[in-house]
Design a protein that fits this description.
With about 150 residues, this protein is α+β, with helices and mostly antiparallel strands. The chain contains four helices and five strands. Strands 1-2-3-4-5 form a five-stranded mixed beta sheet, covered by helices on one side. Helix 3 links the parallel strand 4 and strand 5. The longest helix is centred in the last third of the chain and has 15 residues.
Length: about 150
Amino acid sequence: MAASTLSVASRATPAGTTAALPKTSISRYAGIRPSFMPISRAVWHKRCSGNCLVAEASGNLVGLAHFIFHRSTTMLGPTCYLQDLFTNQAARGRGVGRALISAVYERARSAGCTRVYWQTHESNTIAQRLYDTVAERSGFIVYRKDL
């Protein structure tokens, strides 16, 4: 995708953000069963009321990113967690993810953050090829317990 046809912008309101992405794309990305889609859509819409960026090409939504600024016990200043990064399957490999990550970096810098971090699944090797060029692996392993 040529840089001139790709734009990344803040989406201040949730209207239409996830509606423009196919339900199957969101559910595959998030690992969500179709029966959970109404909950997923509500959560994604709520996130888009804050720090949400969308990537558009030729008037079509091709990607989005949600990010959160927060404090850390290991750093004095705020840090930024890239909560979600999604590129429509048809637009993958065309610079959409890189553009969204760069835009998150700029927003984080403007907010006084000195770090942006995110997680990915160990099987997501295609995305990791991009991530390895724009960030460093921290070496941390994530543990979680659903309650």
